[in-house]
Sequence to fold (103 residues):
Amino acid sequence: MAESSAGLQRLAPFVLGRARRGVVGSSRYAQRLRTEVLEAARDPQRQPVLISGEPGLEKDNLAALVHYGSADRRRLLVRMGPIFINIYKTVLNLTVKISILFT
Fold:
């Protein structure tokens, strides 16, 4: 149990909270994006979602919308880059269920 607690404390800086806002706008692109976010969140097979785009496009927020709209909403959403692979390996040994967003 202490091992799980220590692992969670190391993940604390990378945990993403709730989505800050939904998809704003009434254009056909905004409507399509809202539909795709809902489809990804409700996917019964829980397939991975690739969110790409230029800096400043709120990709983390879209990931949070998908995650917290899904059945996995009670799990942690963790943002990690490739340099955190060692932490990821440690997380795999924990009994805590999380979703991981690689950037």
User: Anything to note?
Assistant: The longest strand covers residues 76-80. DSSP finds four helices and three strands in the chain.
